[in-house]
Structure formats: structure tokens, C-alpha cells
């Protein structure tokens, strides 16, 4: 069995060593653009170029080293090729940490306390009611459900929105295009954990964000392509939104002249909410390759028609 690696922006050697250790029977090589490539059975990839896909027509599965497959599905892929996303692999707990940190920072006004402390000011703010801070999670998949439970543990009212109906204890679940307006109207904090698909691209614009409760906060940890940047800025500047914590952007790295960098009510982090953990990811991918070799089914196969 042969596995080939094409990990744009990630050093491939530690992945090669890890996969060799996990699957000693496999030959594991690293794709070199322009060099002749031995035909592989499986590929482990992040944002590969079309040339890589074209050079490997015999692949049985393409393992993405992330949860989001939006960089893969626009490629011309053989119709029978399975695309497999990472299923948690240590990301959901990181996502829960990130979102709870951002939520609590806004809710408890920690930025204000930090500014007071820098000015040598001992001042209290009036405690806020959790009931006035319902949190909405868009996307109730592997990451969204974990985040919803973590937010619920802090006793915020939690709403969730997904494509298909869900039942999650402690979460008021909404679904489908018809459920969107009702969901948004309930939310003071909106957490985006949707995959980027043709249906969800540009979903967070002046109309949808405008339906949130006044003084709302956006936490975008999914993809930059979900948000219409100018609409977000306009809603912050007119005061309808009180703040935004943004981990993902249309162009990454965020260009130096982008207004998000210096906006007083926007916090920028460099796409780091939930990092791919190499050891966990290799273990998951190796386990799935072994299952496919035995002819067993695996979880995390992407449905190209849905886009996630
Ligand atoms: P999943 O595929 O497990 O979950 C996706 C969820 O979104 C599902 O609940 C799905 O609904 C819902 N959804 C999809 N399309 C629609 C739609 N049109 N309308 C309403 N709901 C929809 O993904 P994960 O939870 O694993 O990951 C989510 C995203 O997080 C990734 O795609 C990626 O973009 C981002 N991400 C960001 C990271 C970061 O560091 N910032 C790290 C990792 C991921 P249903 O359940 O009904 O199918
Ligand atoms: C992912 C990401 O999709 O890191 O896993 O964004």
C-alpha cells in the first residue's frame, strides 16, 4: 500500500514519520511538484493543487488534515474518490475553549477591566444577567455540538441551527432556511461553526446579522467566506453589533491594510481556534486506512452534493 502526502504550508516530514510508524506495511512518500509520482492508494492532504489530484488518478481516499473541506471540493476530483475530513481529533475541546473564552470576555467586560487596570482605576461594572445573553451556535456538527454543550455548562441560554433537525439536551434547536430568522432573533451572541458551502457562503450579511438582538457579538471560527466584511463593519459602526471576535478571513493571512486589524471592537486571531494535532490526526487517519483495507466502513466521508 502506498500513501502520498501533499501538505501545503505544513512540514510533511513529521507526518511521513508518524504514518510510517502507525502503518509499517505502507510506503509513505511526499509529493514533489513536477517530479514523477508513484501511484498511491491514499493521499493525506491540505489544500492540494489540481496538479496533485491529476497526478494520482488511482487514489481510494483523500484524507484532509482539517475538518473543513472547502479547499478540496472545488477541485476536479474523480467521482468515485472518497474525501474524508478529520473528525474532531482533538479539535472540539480547543474550539470549546476558544469560544467560551471569547464569550466570557465579552459578557464579563474583561476588556473594560483591563483598560481600567492599565489606568490604575478600581471600578466595578454592573453584573449582567445571563438570560439577556442567549448564545446561538450556527452548525451543530462535531465542533458545534461540543461548543453548545460547553457554553451550556456556563448556564447561558443556548440555541443552535443546523440543516436537519436535531435534539441536544439543553439546546433549543432550530433548522433549515425556514428556521433561520427565528433562530437569529433569539441570539445576543452568534457563534459561526458552519462549513463553507455554496449555501452558506456570504450568509452573514447585513440582513442576517441585522436580525440579531441589539448589542450582539459575533464569534466567527468557521470560514471568512461566510461573512460579508463591509456589512459587519457597517453594523459595528452603527452600534447594532457591540463586538466581533474573528479567527478566519477571506484572505489569510489577513492583509496588513485590512480594516479588521485596527477596528476598536474587533479582535483578530490568526486561524488558530482549533489547531490540527498531528499525533491525534495520524492515529485517526491510520485507523481509517486500516478499516478501508479490511473493507469496513469509516466515519467522516464527505458528501460532495452537500459540500461537507
Ligand atoms: P460538521 O460537518 O461536523 O458540521 C457542520 C454543521 O453545519 C452540521 O450541523 C450541519 O447540519 C450544519 N450545516 C451545514 N450546512 C448547513 C446549512 N446550509 N444550513 C444550516 N446548517 C448547515 O463540521 P465541524 O463541526 O467538524 O466543523 C465546522 C467547520 O468549522 C469546518 O467546516 C471548518 O470550516 C471550521 N473549522 C475551523 C477551525 C478553526 O481553527 N477556526 C478548525 C476546524 C474547523 P446537519 O447536522 O443538519 O448536517
Ligand atoms: C479545519 C481548520 O478546517 O483548521 O480543520 O480550519
Label this structure with key terms.
alpha/beta; Rossmann fold; 7-stranded parallel beta sheet; 5-stranded parallel beta sheet; 31% helix; 18% strand; elongated; binds NADPH dihydro-nicotinamide-adenine-dinucleotide phosphate; binds oxalic acid
Task: Give me the secondary-structure topology.
Blueprint (H helix, E strand, L loop, with lengths): L1 E6 L4 H11 L4 E4 L11 E5 L3 H6 L5 E4 L17 E3 L6 H17 L2 H9 L16 E4 L3 H12 L4 E5 L8 E5 H10 L3 E4 L13 H5 L5 E5 L8 H9 L3 E6 L19 E3 L9 H17 L14
Parallel strand pairs: 1-2, 1-3, 3-4, 4-5, 6-7, 6-9, 7-8, 9-10, 10-11, 11-12
This protein binds NADPH dihydro-nicotinamide-adenine-dinucleotide phosphate and oxalic acid.
Oxalic acid binds next to loops.
How many domains comprise the coordinates? 2
Which structural class do you get from the secondary structure elements?
alpha/beta
Mean pLDDT over the residues: 97
Which CATH class of the largest domain is shown? Alpha Beta
Largest sheet geometry: 7 strands, parallel
Give the proportion of residues in helices: 25-40%
Radius of gyration: 21 Å
Bound small molecules, which ones? NADPH dihydro-nicotinamide-adenine-dinucleotide phosphate, oxalic acid
Shape: elongated
The assigned CATH architecture of the largest domain is: 3-Layer(aba) Sandwich
Strand order of the largest sheet: 8-7-6-9-10-11-12
Q: How would you classify the quaternary structure?
A: single chain
N-to-C CA distance: 27 Å
Find the CATH superfamily of the largest domain. NAD(P)-binding Rossmann-like Domain
The portion of residues forming beta strands comes to 15-25%
CATH topology of the largest domain: Rossmann fold
Count the DSSP helices: 9
Low-confidence stretches: none
Total number of strands: 12
**Sequence of secondary-structure elements:** EHEEHEEHHEHEEHEHEHEEH
Amino acid at each position: 500500500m502506498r500513501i502520498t502526502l501533499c501538505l501545503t504550508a505544513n512540514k510533511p516530514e513529521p507526518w511521513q514519520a508518524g504514518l510510517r510508524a502507525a502503518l509499517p506495511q505502507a510506503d509513505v512518500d511526499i509529493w514533489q511538484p513536477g517530479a514523477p509520482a508513484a501511484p498511491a492508494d491514499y493521499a493525506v492532504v491540505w489544500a492540494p493543487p489540481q496538479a496533485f489530484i491529476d497526478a494520482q488518478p488511482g487514489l481510494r481516499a483523500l484524507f484532509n488534515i482539517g475538518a473543513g473541506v472547502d479547499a478540496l471540493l472545488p477541485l476536479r476530483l474523480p467521482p468515485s474518490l472518497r474525501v474524508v475530513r478529520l473528525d474532531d481529533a482533538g479539535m472540539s475541546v480547543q474550539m470549546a475553549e476558544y469560544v467560551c473564552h471569547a464569550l466570557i470576555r465579552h459578557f464579563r467586560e474583561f476588556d473594560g477591566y483591563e483598560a481600567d487596570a492599565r489606568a490604575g482605576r478600581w471600578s466595578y461594572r454592573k453584573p449582567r444577567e445571563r438570560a439577556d445573553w442567549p448564545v446561538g451556535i450556527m452548525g451543530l456538527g462535531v465542533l458545534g455540538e461540543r461548543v453548545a454543550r460547553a457554553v451550556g455548562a456556563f448556564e447561558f441560554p443556548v440555541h443552535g441551527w443546523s440543516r436537519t433537525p436535531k435534539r441536544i439536551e439543553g439546546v433549543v434547536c432550530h433548522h433549515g432556511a425556514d428556521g433561520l430568522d427565528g433562530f437569529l432573533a433569539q441570539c445576543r451572541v452568534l457563534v459561526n461553526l458552519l462549513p463553507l458551502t455554496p449555501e452558506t457562503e456570504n450568509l452573514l450579511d447585513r440582513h442576517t446579522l441585522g436580525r440579531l438582538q441589539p448589542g450582539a457579538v459575533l464569534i466567527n471560527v468557521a470560514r471568512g467566506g461566510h461573512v460579508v466584511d463591509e456589512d459587519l463593519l457597517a453594523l459595528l459602526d452603527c452600534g447594532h453589533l457591540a463586538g466581533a471576535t474573528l479567527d478566519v478571513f477571506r484572505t489569510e493571512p489577513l492583509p496588513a491594510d485590512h480594516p479588521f486589524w485596527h477596528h476598536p471592537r474587533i479582535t483578530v486571531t490568526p486561524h488558530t481556534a482549533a489547531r490540527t494535532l498531528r499525533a491525534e490526526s495520524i492515529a485517526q487517519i491510520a485507523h481509517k486506512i486500516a478499516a478501508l483495507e479490511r473493507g469496513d466502513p469509516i466515519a467522516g466521508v464527505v458528501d460532495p452534493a452537500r459540500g461537507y
